[in-house]
Design brief:
Layout lengths: L1 H14 L3 H52 L3 E3 L2 E3 L13 H13 L11 H11 L6 H5 L11 H15 L4 H14 L3 H6 L2 H8 L5 H18 L8 H4 L7 H11 L10 H9 L10 H11 L5 H14 L18 H10 L1
Antiparallel strand pairs: 1-2
Amino acid sequence: MLTRNMTKAVRTNMSAPSAKQQTAAVLKKAQQIVKTECDHDVNRSEILGKRHRRSTKHKTAVSQAHQTQARPTEETGNVQVRPRRKSIKVEYDSTAGTRDKELQDRNNPKKSQWEPQDWIKQLDNIREMRKNKDAPVDQMGAGKCFDPRAAPQVIRYQVLISLMLSSQTKDEVTAAAMKKLQAHGLSVENIVQTDDKTLGELIYPVGFWKSKVKYMKQCSEILQQQYNGDIPDNVTDLVKLPGIGPKMAHLTMAIAWNTVSGIGVDTHVHRIANRLGWMKRETKTPEETRVGLEDWLPRDLWSEINWLLVGFGQQVCQPVYPRCSDCLNWDICSSANLKKTKGR
């Protein structure tokens, strides 16, 4: 029994591989793996090389095709000529293109610009309602407050002062203040020499009378020093004077210099232009309204539009409770129609 077991153990040890044989087997397996990886890399390189050669051939073929296409092929004598293809115009929809089109339309005299609906009929109706010339502005406006017997230079100065005082002030109050100033002596020299207290008593109760006393003194001093007692003859210099805005400057040019430089827009003109729909977009300030009106209203109407609308605003299209039932434009005025709709 013991002999049989020893014989079996010896056979088992003889059949098991030795450490040297195991190492050799591992090395052989590693060599096979390395060889397989190398073969794979070689095959991959060959594939990439073939792709590169095909791509190069394709590019060359395309280039030759373009050159061939560029060559003339239509026979003309001994030379073949092929006509060129017509170029394709590509247009892009962009805001820049839209702005360019708007500029072209604006510069094109045949292209009609925006204008409010029914404005001609509305203006004719306002002329009809203003034909009696019995509004306060007709009797006591800036064009009526100067002394016609004074020298032209003094008349121009009085027009400027009357417009300065008229801001935020009713025509009746402005006219009363102008009469007191003329009785005192309304000239550049006299106002420069008059103290502020006396000036305040003369112009009270015009709106913002304390500020206007300062404006009168400062303005008169500038006119005496820089304009030899006269007033500027252009809007640019007029608006540089203390207390003089664009509305006053344009009205001064119209009344004092008989020159139409722009539309004088006060609160009446500003209000009525928006009520009638004469603004492309609703405006918030008189200056915005002036720019909007001058953009479409014919220039030959600029001189009368202030006078018409101010008197119309004083008598009919009043700030509060406008008399729409007495207005000839009640059926073509968007504001009147809105009021009628709200009342239903």
